[in-house]
UniProtKB/TrEMBL annotation:
It comes from Marinobacter algicola DG893. This is ABC-type cobalt transport system, ATPase component. InterPro entries: AAA+_ATPase (IPR003593), ABC_transporter-like_ATP-bd (IPR003439), ABC_transporter-like_CS (IPR017871), ABC_transpr_CbiO/EcfA_su (IPR015856), ECF_ABC_transporter_ATP-bd (IPR050095), P-loop_NTPase (IPR027417). Belongs to the ABC transporter superfamily. Residues 6-238 form the ABC transporter domain. Keywords: ATP-binding, Nucleotide-binding, Transport. GO terms for cellular component: ATP-binding cassette (ABC) transporter complex. One of its GO terms (molecular function) is ATP binding. Residues 235-255 have a biased composition (Basic and acidic residues). PROSITE patterns: ABC_TRANSPORTER_1, ABC_TRANSPORTER_2.
């Protein structure tokens, strides 16, 4: 059997007297894109950080790339191969400019200055943010920081990608770009990601687990035909021809007429909703 890239073995984590994680069992294999689902405060971030030694287990063990990992030196090796996108991008970015931030990882992994800069430029270009190179990192918007933070992780060409709520703060077009990009990547060999974004989970995940009451519940992620009626909110400039019928035109329509929002000088935009059904078979 192929060895897992990463495995968590009876992992427990206590915060003071509180047991946040208990008896967590998890394996990550090449080709997997695993979604970790769970309520706010369930311990998802803590768990993802434990995979790269940013939180050490109270008991149990982490095995990564074939070796049990305990010390900081062990985990430094793990972090060179498993890139973590932090939930808060400000924890990821610390250089004055975007290009320096993205080049930092490859430099740290032993690439020469020119090589690191070339990798950084290529990574930014691939993410469609080549024009950000010279921008001051701390002046970027939240969504822009998110993409740059992702670039810093991808520039290290990780074997495993760990993403903590990657689509938070991104507009719809950027979410789409990000999803397509992640689906296209040759590396990493596997991904684990935390997300509350149903559309993103549906597109990216080929497995899902639920963190509940401090432990991981294996789940079945499946698609099935699902027919339903729903409303969209459309925004388009007043006076501009809409690309859809307005409620007056729908008087005869049998389904629920969408509420329409009119805004002046805003581009035409449609907010979509996507559905995902995650059934918890252990309940
Ligand atoms: N090192 C720590 N010290 C104190 N509390 C912590 C620590 N790590 C996590 N927690 C707490 O554990 C809970 C779970 O946090 P987190 O892993 O961020 O949840 P999630 O990502 O699922 O929303 C939170 O209440 C958080 O404050
Ligand atoms: Mg979290």
């Amino acid at each position: 059997m192929i060895q897992p890239l990463l495995s968590l073995d009876h992992l427990c984590f206590k915060v003071g007297n509180r047991t946040l994680l208990s008896d967590v069992e998890f394996e990550l294999h090449p080709g997997e894109r695993v979604a970790i689902l769970g309520a706010n405060g369930a311990g998802k971030t803590t768990l993802l950080e434990m995979m790269v030694g940013l939180n050490l287990p109270s008991s149990g063990r982490v095995v990564a790339f074939g070796k049990p990992r305990r010390s900081e030196a062990d985990f430094r090796e793990v972090r060179a191969r498993a890139g973590l996108l932090f939930q808060d991008s400000d924890n990821q970015l610390f250089c004055p400019t975007v290009l320096e931030d993205v080049a930092f990882g490859p430099l740290n992994l032993g690439r020469s200055g020119p090589e690191a800069l070339a990798i950084a430029r290529r990574t930014l270009d691939e993410l469609g943010i080549g024009s950000f190179s010279d921008r001051i990192t701390h002046k970027l918007s939240g969504g822009e920081k998110r993409l740059v933070a992702l670039a810093t992780v991808l520039a290290m060409e990780p074997d495993v990608l760990l993403l903590d709520e990657p689509t938070t703060g991104l507009d719809e077009a950027t979410q789409e770009l990000l999803t397509e990009h992640l689906l296209r990547l040759r590396l990493p060999l596997a991904m684990v990601f935390i997300s509350h974004d149903a559309a993103f989970v549906e597109r990216l995940a080929n497995r899902a687990v639920i963190l509940k009451n401090g432990t991981l519940i294996k789940s079945v992620l499946h698609r099935h035909p699902h027919v339903h009626a729903h409303s969209h909110i459309h925004v388009h400039p007043e006076g501009e021809e809409p690309r859809h019928p307005h409620p007056d035109d729908l008087a005869e329509a049998s389904h629920d007429a969408s509420p329409m929002l009119k805004e002046q000088s805003e581009p035409s935009v449609t907010f979509k909703q996507a559905g995902i059904l995650v059934e918890d078979h252990d309940q």
